[in-house]
Design brief:
Blueprint: H1 2-20, H2 23-36, E1 41-48, E2 53-64, E3 72-80, E4 83-90, E5 95-101, H3 118-121
Antiparallel strand pairs: 1-2, 1-5, 2-3, 3-4
Length: 131
Protein backbone atom coordinates (compact mmCIF):
# COMPACT_ATOMS: atom_id res chain seq x y z
CA UNK A 1 0.00 0.00 0.00
CA UNK A 2 2.89 2.37 0.80
CA UNK A 3 4.33 2.03 -2.71
CA UNK A 4 1.02 3.04 -4.28
CA UNK A 5 0.83 6.18 -2.13
CA UNK A 6 4.42 7.10 -3.00
CA UNK A 7 3.69 6.57 -6.71
CA UNK A 8 0.56 8.75 -6.53
CA UNK A 9 2.41 11.54 -4.69
CA UNK A 10 5.29 11.36 -7.19
CA UNK A 11 2.81 11.50 -10.08
CA UNK A 12 1.12 14.57 -8.63
CA UNK A 13 4.50 16.30 -8.19
CA UNK A 14 5.53 15.52 -11.78
CA UNK A 15 2.20 16.79 -13.16
CA UNK A 16 2.53 19.94 -11.03
CA UNK A 17 5.99 20.61 -12.37
CA UNK A 18 4.94 20.06 -15.98
CA UNK A 19 1.83 22.22 -15.65
CA UNK A 20 3.94 25.06 -14.23
CA UNK A 21 6.15 25.11 -17.33
CA UNK A 22 5.27 27.30 -20.27
CA UNK A 23 5.82 26.24 -23.86
CA UNK A 24 8.78 28.62 -24.05
CA UNK A 25 10.34 27.10 -20.90
CA UNK A 26 10.06 23.57 -22.30
CA UNK A 27 11.47 24.52 -25.73
CA UNK A 28 14.30 26.49 -24.10
CA UNK A 29 15.19 23.55 -21.86
CA UNK A 30 15.08 21.13 -24.81
CA UNK A 31 17.31 23.43 -26.92
CA UNK A 32 19.82 23.63 -24.07
CA UNK A 33 19.87 19.85 -23.74
CA UNK A 34 20.31 19.50 -27.52
CA UNK A 35 23.22 21.95 -27.45
CA UNK A 36 24.82 20.08 -24.54
CA UNK A 37 24.50 16.92 -26.66
CA UNK A 38 26.39 18.63 -29.53
CA UNK A 39 23.35 18.80 -31.81
CA UNK A 40 23.23 22.61 -32.24
CA UNK A 41 25.58 24.80 -34.30
CA UNK A 42 26.70 27.78 -32.24
CA UNK A 43 28.94 30.78 -32.63
CA UNK A 44 30.50 32.04 -29.39
CA UNK A 45 32.24 35.42 -29.50
CA UNK A 46 34.46 36.77 -26.71
CA UNK A 47 35.00 40.50 -27.00
CA UNK A 48 36.67 43.39 -25.23
CA UNK A 49 33.99 45.92 -24.29
CA UNK A 50 36.47 48.81 -24.13
CA UNK A 51 38.22 48.32 -27.47
CA UNK A 52 35.20 46.74 -29.24
CA UNK A 53 37.50 44.04 -30.61
CA UNK A 54 36.75 40.34 -30.82
CA UNK A 55 39.29 38.34 -28.83
CA UNK A 56 38.14 34.88 -29.85
CA UNK A 57 35.41 33.38 -32.02
CA UNK A 58 34.44 29.71 -31.63
CA UNK A 59 32.02 28.15 -34.08
CA UNK A 60 30.63 24.61 -34.31
CA UNK A 61 28.78 22.00 -32.31
CA UNK A 62 29.57 23.61 -28.96
CA UNK A 63 28.33 23.35 -25.40
CA UNK A 64 28.78 26.23 -22.96
CA UNK A 65 30.06 25.50 -19.47
CA UNK A 66 26.99 25.32 -17.27
CA UNK A 67 28.83 25.03 -13.95
CA UNK A 68 31.46 27.73 -14.61
CA UNK A 69 32.33 30.46 -12.13
CA UNK A 70 31.65 34.16 -12.73
CA UNK A 71 35.23 34.72 -13.87
CA UNK A 72 35.72 31.68 -16.09
CA UNK A 73 33.93 30.27 -19.11
CA UNK A 74 34.48 26.93 -20.80
CA UNK A 75 33.35 26.00 -24.28
CA UNK A 76 33.49 22.34 -25.33
CA UNK A 77 33.13 21.53 -29.03
CA UNK A 78 32.72 18.28 -30.92
CA UNK A 79 35.25 18.32 -33.77
CA UNK A 80 34.90 14.75 -35.05
CA UNK A 81 33.54 11.33 -34.19
CA UNK A 82 34.43 10.91 -30.50
CA UNK A 83 36.78 13.94 -30.74
CA UNK A 84 36.33 17.07 -28.62
CA UNK A 85 38.15 20.31 -27.83
CA UNK A 86 37.67 22.32 -24.65
CA UNK A 87 38.50 26.01 -24.40
CA UNK A 88 38.99 27.87 -21.09
CA UNK A 89 38.47 31.62 -21.13
CA UNK A 90 38.84 34.19 -18.40
CA UNK A 91 36.15 36.84 -18.08
CA UNK A 92 36.73 40.28 -16.58
CA UNK A 93 34.99 43.61 -16.23
CA UNK A 94 35.85 44.47 -19.85
CA UNK A 95 35.81 40.98 -21.43
CA UNK A 96 32.44 39.40 -22.09
CA UNK A 97 30.85 36.96 -24.52
CA UNK A 98 27.71 36.17 -26.42
CA UNK A 99 26.58 32.91 -27.94
CA UNK A 100 24.45 32.68 -31.04
CA UNK A 101 22.56 29.64 -32.29
CA UNK A 102 23.33 29.52 -36.02
CA UNK A 103 20.60 27.19 -37.28
CA UNK A 104 16.98 26.77 -36.28
CA UNK A 105 16.19 23.44 -34.65
CA UNK A 106 12.79 21.80 -34.34
CA UNK A 107 11.82 21.15 -30.75
CA UNK A 108 8.50 19.74 -29.60
CA UNK A 109 7.01 21.95 -26.88
CA UNK A 110 4.91 19.02 -25.64
CA UNK A 111 7.80 16.60 -25.31
CA UNK A 112 10.19 17.00 -22.41
CA UNK A 113 13.66 15.56 -23.03
CA UNK A 114 15.53 13.45 -20.53
CA UNK A 115 18.99 12.42 -21.69
CA UNK A 116 20.79 9.61 -19.89
CA UNK A 117 24.32 8.87 -20.95
CA UNK A 118 25.03 5.12 -20.90
CA UNK A 119 28.53 5.74 -19.52
CA UNK A 120 26.97 7.42 -16.48
CA UNK A 121 24.88 4.34 -15.70
CA UNK A 122 27.07 1.47 -16.91
CA UNK A 123 30.71 1.46 -15.79
CA UNK A 124 33.48 1.33 -18.38
CA UNK A 125 34.11 -2.37 -18.96
CA UNK A 126 36.93 -3.80 -21.06
CA UNK A 127 36.15 -7.19 -22.55
CA UNK A 128 39.01 -9.51 -23.32
CA UNK A 129 38.39 -12.80 -25.14
CA UNK A 130 40.67 -15.65 -26.08
CA UNK A 131 41.85 -16.02 -29.66
Amino acid sequence: MGKKIKAIVLGIIVVGILVGCTEADTVSENLSKSADSFEVQRKVVFFNGITDRDLLVIEGLCSLGNQDSDRRMTVTCKVGKDEYKKHYLGLSDNVSFFAEQLDAKKEDPFHYKVIIRPEAVIPDIELQTSK
